[in-house]
Specification:
The protein is of the alpha+beta class. Helix content is about 40%, strand content about 30%.
Length: about 110
């Protein structure tokens, strides 16, 4: 289980990550590109994964990590239930999403 404040703190710990509003949700961005959104009312964070990464992270039996419905899900946008996910799985998914969006130089800083 990940608390909302823990999710925010971790997302903002990534190099040059910022928190900005995105409609009725909170977004986490790097260089103006969204790598995650958070719905505080449902405790769901949505991350941007590649199709391959999405297939690795999916958990159809437990409904912890699953694609967003419709076309966005087919493009890699993936929901994570914060009340059900373990910390290491959560961190891996956020970092993977960040790496899909961030410039190479920032990714190198993350890997140091």
């Amino acid at each position: 289980m990940i608390k909302i404040d823990e999710a925010i703190k971790f997302a903002l710990s990534l190099p040059e990550a910022v928190e900005l509003p995105h409609f009725e949700k909170t977004s986490f961005r790097v260089k103006k590109k969204i790598f995650a959104t958070l719905d505080k009312t449902t405790s769901i964070i949505v991350v941007k994964l590649s199709e391959v990464d999405q297939s690795v992270f999916l958990d159809p039996k437990h409904q912890i990590i699953y694609p967003v419905s419709g076309a966005w899900g087919k493009k890699g946008w993936t929901k994570i239930e914060l009340k059900k996910v373990g910390k290491s799985l959560f961190k891996d998914a956020i970092i993977t999403s960040y790496k899909n969006i961030a410039p190479k130089g920032l990714i190198e800083r993350l890997d140091q």
